[in-house]
Amino acid sequence: MKPAVAESLIDLIGQTPILKIPSLSLLSGCEIFVKCEFMNPGGSIKDRAALNMVQEALTSGELKPGMTIVEGTAGNTGIGLAIVAKALGLKLKVVMPKGQTPEKERLIGLHGAELVLVDPVPFSNPGHFYHTARQLAEAEPQTHWWANQFENLANYRAHYQTTGPEILAQTEGRLDVLVSAAGTGGTIGGTSAYLKEQLPQMQVVLADPSGSGLYSYIKTGTFRAEGSSLTEGIGIMRVVANFAQARVDDAVHLPDQDLVSLAHYVRDHDGLVLGSSSALNLAVALHTALRTGPGKRLLTFACDLGERSYSKLYNPAFLAERQLDPRRSLEDCLRSWQ
Questions:
Q1: Which of 255, 280, 291, 331 shows the smallest number of beta carbons within 10 Å?
Q2: Rounded CA gap, 153 and 156, in Å?
Q3: Angle CA 170–37–63, to nearest 5
Q4: Low-confidence ranges of the chain (pLDDT < 50)
Q5: What Å distances lie between residue 72 and 21, 89, 120, 144, CA to CA?
């Protein structure tokens, strides 16, 4: 439980509430819930992984006081690490690919971290943000520690130890479907592993955007992807250690237009302004609810709020460039799912 009076921001990480989405629950005949991870102090679900990775490294001695944390990220993990680093007296260097929303870049700087921007290149390129972070840390191993969120299982354990148990308690063990996208795989890995142990009949559905190969991997065992998505930090083209822990039963791939329509629908009907990954999660939850039939209880994650996606998801000029129409109704999307 959170303390009555927190001594620092990291004491506020976790124990987020669950919210029922009235409009989508009515539309589907199911109960559709989101876990409000935007209520973490860094504004996203990545605060949980950031805290546990740092705490485990300090305990093991791999990370020592006075050292600099280095991490490659699309943004939210960097913000979470910045808050954790500041609270624990550590420094942070964040490597981020260019082209992410400027809102995330600003937040990393505001929280006192050093930001290194690199060109967005394929993973096979040595200049990829993942490899760049690793190289920066390895160049000064006595003073720098690489968080390595993709392969560091402290990420998975953060959700196995906190997110999963919270959901089980908050839903009183009554949950039919968990829906989650995967970036590093830590959230879906830890949460699904824990909940499947407690609720063996619960189904886990992966939400996957364009440009990611995980949908193909779940369906066929091979990675194949087409196009790209406005979502940031979601979807991968390889099996990383954290995703390898996930207990996934099915996968759903939806195009960007569906998550744009869903985000605007929920904003207009429920007053909830979602980030792009949260909109993908909720769109797949609705898709799954309509497919499974009425009476089910489904939960997904509101990973962050829409202010970090404003320059893309809620920007008419950007959407027009991508041939996306915020005026297209959610009902049009539902017809295309049939």
A1: 331
A2: 5
A3: 110
A4: none
A5: 33, 20, 12, 13
CA distance linking residue 275 with residue 230, whole number of Å:
11
pLDDT (tens digit per residue) in 18-40 = 999 999 999 999 999 999 999 99
Which DSSP category does 15 fall into? -
- Would you state the structure tokens that stand for residue 152, as one six-digit string? 């560091």
Q: pTM of the prediction?
A: 0.95
Structure tokens that stand for 253 in this block: 């791939």
Sign of the four-CA dihedral 94, 86, 158, 249: negative
- 333 close to 258: Cβ distance less than 8 angstroms: yes
Closest by alpha carbon to 107, among 49, 187, 41?
41
Location of structure tokens 């001594």:
7
- What letter represents residue 47's amino acid? D
Say if residues 255 and 163 touch (Cβ distance below 8 Å): no
